[in-house]
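Page 42, continued from yesterday. The earlier attempt failed because a stray header line got pasted into the input along with the sequence. Redoing it now with the clean sequence only.
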Amino acid sequence: MSTYVQPVNEVKDPIKKEDSNLNKPQTPQIVGGLVVSAILLVYLLFSQEAVQPLLLVIGILLGYTLFHARFGFTSAFRRLASVGNGQALRAHMLMLAVAVTLFAPILAFGLSFFGGEVSGYVSPVGISLLVGAFLFGIGMQLGGGCASGTLYAVGGGRSVMFVTLLFFIVGSTVGAYHLPFWTEELPSFEPVSLATSTGLGYGGAWAVSILLFGVIAWITLVIERRRKAPKMAPLPSTSGWKRIFRGSWPLFAAAIVLAVLNALTLMTRGTPWGVTSAFALWGSKVAQFFGVDVASWGYWQGNVEALNASIFTDSTTVLNLGVILGAFLASAAGGLFKFSKLNLKNVAAAIIGGLLMGYGARLAFGCNIGAYFGGIASFSLHGYIWGILALGGTFVALYLRPLFGLSVPKSKDSFC
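This time it went through. Structure tokens are written below.
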């Protein structure tokens, strides 16, 4: 970060001081992003149901928030595993606390903007979940980002993440093909909801969830003290209303915004925010184009019509496109959109990481968004187990990252 020196006789201007650390907005990119967003919004308004354009707007807000706060799931797990810093994980706990507070009445009373059914993500606990979440944990540390992280990094211009996304789609498609084996041939328990499977109800499940989040946050503080963890370095920012558009957002502010947007997604389409089911759809459509009998796969039984419909009828696809556009607009507003360089090692890591994440997400009934965020917010036991296994995969990946020239934070480092 640059150092600001106040000239003699100059009136102190804290906003100017902070803005001196920021890049200039990239006006052509901003205009281009707004035009593309407007065209897509108009297309959805006239060609799809009313839910789709609203989801596009929510997706754009999600991407904007993720990028501006650099809100990561991959980095949060890595910081805790490598140096014991739990700042980002505590932001997760706040996000989840706000989410369960909003999800509880929505799920309990079936609150919906369009009058449809509302349901959370409550999935089985079995070998499929354990293996899938563990593989995803390794993959996100090699691929450079989780599911949401891949999308917003693509929007921000990180070239290697285009490779990660491509192989994320491949892995998810292969995982969809193999899923019946993992779910039907291997041991599995029925889905467990803290609200409906335990007799606690949504009020009791909310109280238990809040208690668990508090305990997890406390544990991260204990780990930080014992390991003398370094703090996260501040990112360049500004103050006042300008901070909405430029500079970094506080993690805790972003956590609240993401929880609210996830609740709005639930009320809009009837299910929480998800990412990777669209990847399986995109890959399956490509495979079908080349003559593969995708419709015969067990994964698509009961939903074959999705294979023959436009991708714009898929709500998760629309959300994903919105996240990419929102991240692009955020990066351009901060003057940060720039394609990065590729090398053999980071491309190899992206390929392996993308494949592991795609395959793992299908086995684990979702990714960091659908299984971890959406699952826990829906009071599902599988969301907590996903987080534990993904953290386990992160520990393994710390030993693999150096093989691909990827850094691992050290206890003496200050990091962003």
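Notes: Residues 25-404 form one domain.
Reminder to self: strip header lines before submitting.
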